[in-house]
Design a protein that fits this description.
Blueprint lengths: L2 E6 L15 E5 L4 E5 L5 H7 L8 E4 L4 H4 L2 H12 L4 E5 L3 H13 L1 E3 L5 E3 L7 E5 L4 E2 L7 E5 L9 E5 L3 E3 L19 E5 L13 H7 L2 H4 L2 E4 L17 E2 L5 E5 L1
Parallel strand pairs: 3-4, 4-5, 5-8, 12-13, 13-14, 14-15
Antiparallel strand pairs: 1-2, 1-16, 2-3, 6-7, 9-10, 10-11, 11-12
Bound molecules: zinc ion (2 copies).
One zinc ion binds next to loops.
Length: 256
Amino acid sequence: MQTFTLTFLGCGSGIYSELGNNNVLLESAAAHTNLLIDCGFITAPELEQTEYLAKIQNALVTHVHADHVGGFEYWGYLNRYVYHHRPNLYFHGDVFDELWHGTLRGGLQRSQNDEGNPEELSLSDYYEPHPLKTDETILIAGLPEIRLRQTLHVKKKPAISLFIGELIYYSSDTVELPPERGPTGRPLEAVFQDCQLFEGPSNVHISIFRLAREIPPQLKKITYLMHYGRGYDRFNPEEMGFAGFVKPGQLFEFRF
Ligand SMILES: [Zn+2]
Ligand SMILES: [Zn+2]
């Protein structure tokens, strides 16, 4: 039996900076390894200031919004010019176009070499890219297997949720309900679920009200709500049957 920790570096929605970016760090102290799930515009400088960013070996992108990828340009510069290190970067193949061409290329492609001549760089000059297919797994020694699951966030936009090992589900940003079982059919131990605190005519995040109505009670009890916004203090998720709101910096420990 091995253990790992899952730490929320932030838990705010994409337009609520006070609670940080909803990004998580998986770590195994015994195996000296880690995986950062998304790196938003607040997360990268925060990790750099604590000198932890240089120690991150693996990162994963769930989808392209600034609260999930806004830190990769800054981190990329540090990798190339300061750390001299290329962390593994995992992403679904469908996300590549928005990640590189739509976001990072503008800052990272055009550079100058030591002789002062122009040079064109690619994503692999900053990170070791690992494009993945749906249902493909990420295997990192010392951490549970991560399985990618396509999900609906914004129509026509590639986005993925994750199974972390057999028993943990991490929704990232989505309008979908969480599954009741893990990838091998076992009941889940914990669900980390995106939620918004209002219902609108066109939702890109699932609302706390719909989750409260449609999730079975036994699943609700193990569901931690994340990626929430302003006005959260008006809600009491435990009274609604949920495990609660994730807090910024909250750490969970799991066995696998
Ligand atoms: Zn987000
Ligand atoms: Zn998003």
